[in-house]
Amino acid sequence: MTFAAQSRSPSVAALRSGFERTRAQAERFPLSVIQLAMRIGVGAVFFKSGLLKINSWEFAVKLFEDEYKVPLLDPILAAQVTALIELTVPVLLFLGLGTRLATLPLLAMTFVIQAFVYPQAWTEHLLWASVLVFLLTRGPGALSLDFLLANAAAGRGRAP
């Protein structure tokens, strides 16, 4: 390699500096937007499932009888409870209202689905559970009713 070619190649320090600048810019992306996307994304999975159940009720009950076979629950009761949770709890996630509490029934459903229904789909369930645990432990973010209500109760109206 000639001296001219060596002088044109970036140095390790320049590459590191560019990487650090890029990382710093990425870290400025608002976490609240990511939390909103997480709430909508995981909520939509469950909400769509609930809509499918009520739109094809007989089929949903048949699935609980023949395929899901959730232990200890009558298939009709299991279908009713599941549909109720899937149609109400995601709405709370979408709004960011009672978010931490709303993650609990969905985490329980994810566990039941993983343990008793579709254990081979563990990667999908791990993704759902990861998002739900993140929301449970870190909250819904600033783009939520939880945030607005907490600030109103504390006498503040803006994000810190």
Describe this structure in words.
- The chain is an all-alpha fold.
- It has one domain.
- Helix content is 79%, strand content 0%.
- It has 8 helices and no strands.
- Helix 6 runs antiparallel to helix 7.
- The longest helix is centred in the N-terminal third of the chain and has 25 residues.
- The N and C termini lie far apart (54 Å).
How are the SSEs placed, and which strands pair?
Layout lengths: L2 H6 L3 H16 L3 H25 L1 H12 L6 H21 L3 H19 L4 H17 L6 H10 L6
Helix pairs in contact: 3-4, 3-5, 3-7, 4-5, 5-6, 6-7
Largest sheet: none
Query: First CA to last CA: what distance?
Result: 54 Å
H/E topology pattern? HHHHHHHH
Q: How many E-type strands?
A: 0
Describe this structure in a few short sentences:
The chain has about 160 residues and is an all-alpha fold. About 80% of the residues lie in helices and about 0% in strands.
Write a concise keyword list for the protein shown above.
mainly alpha, 160 residues, flat
